[in-house]
Amino acid sequence: MKQRQAGFTLIELMIVVTIIGILAAVVFPAYQEHVRSARRTAAMGCLMERTHFMERFYSANMTYVGAAPPACPGEVTQFYNIADPANLTATTYTLAANPIGAQAGDRCGNLSVNETGNRQAAGGANCWQ
């Protein structure tokens, strides 16, 4: 009697490797976009927190001048440069977050919000939704 050896053939192994390669090619870019989206959402949250601070300061002082919004957490500042309020006058301001490092290739680009609540993104209107 002849015993048969169990195992995989080279063809079967190559098919499995090819399937894994195709799945990785599809899944990895989607994963990267999801990570960028999560970082963008954190930056938007930080901008909105700073906006709320500016509005509370204005309510108490009737001016935006002198307001020092809180710093963003490290997980945001690691991927976004959060600028000090720009165009700061007694009645106006603009807060901005500019992507840096691994986030620099984000489709939304620079994010900003002003005293009227007007939210803008370099990548278009869908970025703040």
TrEMBL record:
Transmembrane helix listed as a keyword: yes
TM ranges: 6-31
Principal subcellular localisation of the protein: membrane
Protein's cellular compartments: Membrane
Domain of life, source organism: Bacteria
Membrane topology label: Single-pass membrane protein
The protein, known as: Type IV pilin protein
Species for this entry: Azonexus hydrophilus
